[in-house]
Amino acid sequence: MTHPTTHSPSLWQRHQIFEKNSIILVIGILIAISIGGLVEVLPLFYLKSTIEQVDGIRPLTPLELTGRDIYVREGCYNCHSQMIRPLRDEVERYGHYSLAAESMYDHPFQWGSKRTGPDLARVGGKYSDDWHRDHLRNPRSVVPASIMPAYPWLEQNLVDISHVGDNMAVLAVEGVPYTQEMIQSAMSDAKTQGSADDASTPAFTKRYPKAISRDLGGNVGRLTEADALISYLQLLGTQVDFKLYDDKANIR
Amino acid sequence: MQDNPAKKADEKSRYGTTGHEWDGIQELNTPLPRWWLWTWYACILWAFGYWIAYPAIPLVSSFTKGALGWSSREAVVADIAGLQTLRGPMTAKIEAASLTDIENTPELLSFARAQGSAAFAVNCSPCHGAGAQGAKGYPNLNDDDWLWGGSLDAIHTTLQHGIRWDADKDTRSSMMPAFGKDGTLKPNEISATADYVRSLSGLSTEKGADLALGQSVFAANCAACHGDNGEGNQDVGAPKLNDKVWLYGPDKALIMERITVGGGGVMPAWSARLDVPTIKSLAVYVHTLGGGQ
Fold this sequence. Notes:
Chain A is mainly alpha-helical. Chain A is 40% helix and 0% strand. The longest helix of chain A has 19 residues.
């Protein structure tokens, strides 16, 4: 440490160039932050161990993708995380900790950082479609102590699937393996998934293995925003079969 | 601002100035407090130690694993194994014992109720309520009115395979027809039937209600599952209609809605999500809430 009354060493004097010139200071800050970013973020893109090798992860169907957009639009991520951390109590409550592979097709990911409500990474299959519908309409009707806002418009608004093909095309550029066929049949696939078995179901299921097409709302021919969101929620965390997943191979 | 500061010590603070001056206002160059500075140096040292001890530095095809060899994914497996050594002896007993034996052995019963209550809070309470009191469309589990049976085995089966849960091939299933939506019954028949259903449990009926019509519609369409006198049928999950316990509510409008849309509640199959002892504990917990048969 330098006492100011003694003669300053040259290092401190050289540092004055940053203190006296705001542009140089800004450039200096940018360089310092970039180093941090490059060291912390960049390796995750080239290290092969970042994303686990697992079976079963497929891109979201057009209806699920639309539901995901509604999830983002309504700001669900502000209160719900989708990230079960490798901690005992979280695994006890929510199930197997989240894998990087499970969100590899998410742009942007919905890990979140705040849990006013519970984590949703494995909410798929935990409750019935009807429960989700009741709960979105008015959370207090099923969970009296809930402080979640009500989203009654979701089951009133017909879902807008006119852009879903375009969205998929953009995601394909970002590396999500949507084929041309998937993009072209996006709108009809969304309708197929929202209705109980119709003739186009086999082709749809071939494109999206294990995707379940069912009448989500109980109102045939009326595909609402709630239907899309519920199809997305019911998929969350269900794609990897943890009975087959090799934990030891993916210890990092 | 002066380039070559006149670093005079200030009379009162004894510190020099930075040499900066704005309209006669000068800036003292007060040094940082020692305790702060040393804490800061210690943090930098700590960071170096951390880099060595824990996984930290990215390399070409891997990263430094750290001297301690710590991995969050190994740590959580060890933590859960620790839980297993704590609980293992009891959960093994729960797994081996029959449901009846669990209820008859105080030691097993208290463990099963504790484990069941924790699992209920996480998995069941969103539908059935924190106190298992139920909600509209989701049955109360404290009473002795059971849709699919209130014996230990029946509750256990329901928990394992769910209700109308398509992903489980052994799921309990039945489907009330949508008498109104598919046009089987006319509006006046639905209204009369709803009045008749209310009369089965002694509730008031609307003035001018055609109970005779209601009775004949009931006999032709409803009695097969709900029983001739609305006594219900647990084999097909058909609720009792001649008691004061209602799944959706006793209002005539609600009864008419059920007749119109039909269907039935859905419960997930928990064997895909929870392990064997947890499901057995849950069955015992629900059975001992008060209404077990």
